[in-house]
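Data card: per-record layout.
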Amino acid sequence: MQSKILVSACLMGHAVRYDGRAKPLLHPAIEIWRAEGRLVTICPEMSAGMAVPRPPAEIADGATSEQVLAGKARVVELTGGDVTAEFLQAAENAVALARQTGCRHALLIDGSPSCGSDFIYDGTFSGRRQAGNGVTAAALKAAGVEVFSDREIDQLLDRLAP
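The structure for this 162-residue chain is written out next.
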């Protein structure tokens, strides 16, 4: 049996991003995996009860997601609201879904404070990037799920090749 792949809902065309939009990933592999029933879709933030649209959020003060998971950093909205609890719940929900459905790999949208796996924003809401994981991506990695960004779909294809 082929393993399942946890995938960001926005990459599947669902309008769930903070700005109410989708960011569909157009790649032949997506359609093949969909037809094979291998894709398990989640928007971590929505799974934790966050609205669409919602204010943009970043991990505060250039901290890391690992610090958020350890209770040493916060996730804040542009408006100043603290959404750390929601992001921690989102990560917990994604890990639980991956375990329940047997997902050993995840394909997540990069840059997100939840799903980013190559980069996130630095917490200043200035558009500056820093290397790092979002909270959900870090939790999935800690749980043994191999995480790929939307720009790494070809690497995921290679990884899944028999």
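Known properties of this structure: The beta strands are 4-8, 39-42, 57-59, 75-77, 103-108, 119-121, 129-131, 146-149. The two ends are 12 Å apart (CA to CA).

See the next section for split statistics.
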